[in-house]
Model the fold of this input.
Amino acid sequence: MSDSGSQGAQVTELSSGIRVVTEAVPSVRSVALGLWVRTGSRDETPAQAGVSHFLEHLLFKGTERHSAIEIAEIFDGMGASVNAATGKESTQLHARLLDTHTDQAFDLLAEMLLGPTYPDIDSEREVVLEEIAMYEDEPSDRVHDVLDEAIFGEHPLGRRILGAAEVISSIPVPDIKAYHRARYTASNIVVAAAGNLSHDEIVELTRQHVESRDPAPSAEHSDGAAPEPQARVGFHCKDTEQYHVTLGGPGIQRGDDRRHALAILDTVFGGSTSSRLFREVREKRGLAYAVGSYTQQFADGGLIGLYVGTREDNIEEACEVIAAELSSIHSEGITQEELTRAKEHVKGRLVLSSESTAARMSRIGKAVLFGTDLLTLDEMIGRVDAVSLDDVAALADELYAPDQLAAAAIAPSEDRFRAALAPINESLAAAPA
Done:
């Protein structure tokens, strides 16, 4: 067993390979507890598309000791909030609870994570199929998956987390069990907790409730390295009131030291209400209600993206404005005033999130799960303060080149969408479907 950590957080790795990370917040009376597994949709084959997310649902459906109703009643009886989430590279089961209920909640969460019995699976299939159907009816969400497919193609990162309806409706329980056994292994599990706690007590509870359930020792993760993103066009025809348009291209990986500079760049470009995209597209011209940019980081790659939803009559003008802002951010970078304002914005969000035990738990859990730096709040603020105009300019020059961007849309007319792309990148407008 080995110990390491930074000020404010402590890490212990058990002999089984399970890692425990905690951050004590003595001023609160709650604990945020998360059980993280390094597996997600990118670990699936096409025949398994969606099984990670489906399995996350099934963790709540029952164990040998408790039915789904009993699980809900126990957490309600503790006054706890419990939930789960699946990403492209991770699955997490988490709860916020009174510190007096830590042992009981930990026991139940661990049993759910490692001992699901898969009762009532057919009813939960229908629930997930309804979730997929609901998602299909939300083009402002669905379009981001169309973009991922345009960027990453057939690679698992190009597939949506919810998966395929035909897989969910037919995958048998033995296949789900096999996936669970292969993926929910000791080396893939991180226990993260923040709040009124003792690190040593959380380590001991991990031994009692997680390690004692004897998960398999190890598993490989990810279906190969991330592919080189490509500048392709994705389109889904749907009779919508708006054209839902996304653009995206290569980003940086989770552990890249430039992630703090990217946070600043994204804030200036489209990630805040004072950003260039928000100001030019929405505030000055009224071309959209929703417009903005975002970033995603993976273990071995990433992407930058932007979204706008606009009526058909405005699609050409909106794309012209986006083209101008892309050109400007790529060729000219940002101003000193923008840098200063963005730094304060990023630091403010870091400090405000630190007041949430759930956010602290998530931050330290992800850091240990993916092997990135486990930084204190002061260290993160210091790295943000250290970002220079040259750092941001170099990153903008690398990442926001229009000829590197893929495009995707959900809209009534592909021809009109492609024509509107010409100011951004003429090759996208002419790219084969």
Observations:
- Residues 2-7 have pLDDT under 50 and may be disordered.
- Residues 95 and 185 are 21 Å apart (CA to CA).
- The first strand starts at residue 2 and ends at 6.
- The chain has two domains: 2-213, 233-430.
